[in-house]
Design a protein that fits this description.
This protein is about 20% helix and about 35% strand. The chain is of the alpha+beta class. The longest helix is centred in the first third of the chain and has 12 residues.
């Protein structure tokens, strides 16, 4: 039995996931907690937030994935972002890296720069 704290909402339910009983989840206050608990042990995913270089400026452009990627790919994804350099203008929602590591998830800008 694994114990987790749910991160789906601010409530932070203390979940218990029974791996031997088809990943049955207890301790959740809502159905989303049950989904999170089972998925976290079988196929953990995360949204990646970071920054990339902005050419000609001392600032960096904040970015994030527009969906979740497998947790095991986070460090490789960060290495991809190390090589990205944007040139203004940049708009919120602009795709910075399409189909990150073949996941079908894009990296998008979260701030505009003129």
């Amino acid at each position: 039995m694994k114990e987790l704290i749910c991160i789906v909402c601010p409530k932070g339910c203390h979940l218990k996931v029974d791996e031997e009983n088809n990943y049955a989840v207890t301790g959740n206050a809502c159905p989303r907690g049950a989904e999170y608990g089972a998925a976290e042990l079988q196929h953990p995913v995360r949204v990646l937030t970071s920054t990339v270089k902005l050419n000609g400026a001392a600032r960096r452009c904040p970015v994030k994935t527009n969906g979740s990627i497998p947790k095991g790919l986070l460090f490789e994804a960060m290495r991809v972002l190390d090589d990205v350099e944007l040139t203004a203008p940049v708009t919120v929602g602009q795709v910075v890296v399409p189909d990150l590591l073949g996941t079908g998830v894009d990296v998008v800008a979260t701030k505009s720069f003129a």
